[in-house]
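Figure caption, in words: inputs first, then the predicted bound structure.
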Amino acid sequence: MASPAFPRCDDTGAWKALRQHFDGTGRGFDARQALQADPARVQAFSLEAPQVFADLSKNLLDAQADRLLLQLAQECGLTAQRDAMFAGEKINATEGRQVMHFLLRAPRQGGADARLSAELAQVHETLARMLAFAEELRTDASITDVVNIGIGGSDLGPQMATLALDSFVAPGKRFHFVSNIDGHELAAVLRQLKPEGTLFLIASKTFTTVETMTNARSARQWFTQQGGRDVSRHFAALTTNVQAAAEFGIGRTFGFWDWVGGRYSMWSAIGLPIAIAVGAQRFRELLDGAHAMDRHFREQPLERNLPVRLALLDVWYRGFHGFTSRSVAPYHSALRRLPAYLQQLEMESNGKRVDRQGRELPYATSPVVWGEPGTNGQHAYFQMLHQGTDVVPVEFIAVKKPEHGLAEHHPQLLANVLAQAAALMQGKSDPGGHRHFPGNRPSTMLLLDRLDPRSLGALVALYEHRVFCAGALWGINSFDQWGVELGKVLAKDIAPRLASGDTVGLDASTAALVQRLRD
Ligand code: F6P
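Bound structure (6-O-phosphono-beta-D-fructofuranose present):
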């Protein structure tokens, strides 16, 4: 069933009222003064979600804007749009697909709508098979290296999560992630391997992605050239395209379904490296954490719904303040791949310029999402955040309890995250001078108690739903990615020209570069 047309954000009364409010007092709102004047502000702009506490009080958001944004969500039918996704409607209309990554973490009993019970049963069947394999492998000391070959969603999620959960990874196995078609990456990994000690996981939803298939072929060739025997024991495929995996010569396949978007797939068989790293029980905790966030998103009213509130902030900052980017600053080094993961999640989902009907949008959509782990960023680009000409909202992620016992470190880390958020907000007066900090620079603080499988699952699901909400308000399809196609097609055309030297039909610049690369 196609989803009904929902009003686009700019078709609502709330949007017009927001424009008026912004042009009046909204633009000049000073959160620093508001925090001073209203002792209840922190409380009013704090939210409690499963595993994640959020303080939004340092954002450029006054009570009126907040009220109007919630009205905007209502007028856009955000809850009905959300329910359409959870009901399994084909909300990814340009690809004619359902969007059901939430099903991958739903409990077998009562975890999802009854009409999705057949899909849910398949999910649990595959999950059990995949986790049994993960456990078997964990006890197999002869396999010392697990190499995930995949790109985009078939790389970023498992890589980010395996790193994030490093404190929970049993020793004895090394994990490698090869995504780039640049042979330097694969070659550097192969140098460290022995065929008899290696398991290659070929991770590709489509099993056609050029980068992945090229790396997979080279890995297989290396394996046989190095005397490796038994491809079926040393290769497994994680894919929806079981037939292509079989044609490649891989018998052991863990499948998933076309209703799982690539960038939403770490909960599926694509998560196998995570499960091998942390074990079945902890992988289930990761799923449970995400499911708890799914329930929060489905059940909480708009005003207490954290993904909704974060998305409304995105719409406010892009559509009214005109902030072009958002920086993510995890104050936990194990979250170092989170910004890269979020780049795909957010920018591939919401980097769109037309609405669901294909009409050009008169407002801005996805911000540029970027960042590095906390204190490292402080000694690199935070200068620009504090004193540059652009305002960049920052999203800090801090973790209360560390997983290590090095007493001196964590209090300093926490002091730094608090200090940075306070400095951005408070600023420092030295009018006209080089030491002047304008202040009133917005940030959000997300706090986790610990970084463990459950909280990581909740955090990632929070981001997924936030992206969904922003896309729903902007009236776009967050689940296709046509923007990556053109470059792929052109690369296919150019590859043989580098060998043949044929430049007919290429633009003058590309033709000259082809020539130069052949000289
Ligand atoms: O090119 C973009 C993309 O389709 C992503 O959406 C996806 O995560 C990635 O390529 C990898 O695709 P696959 O898992 O099919 O190899």
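Residues 111-282 form a domain with the Rossmann fold fold (CATH 3.40.50.10490).
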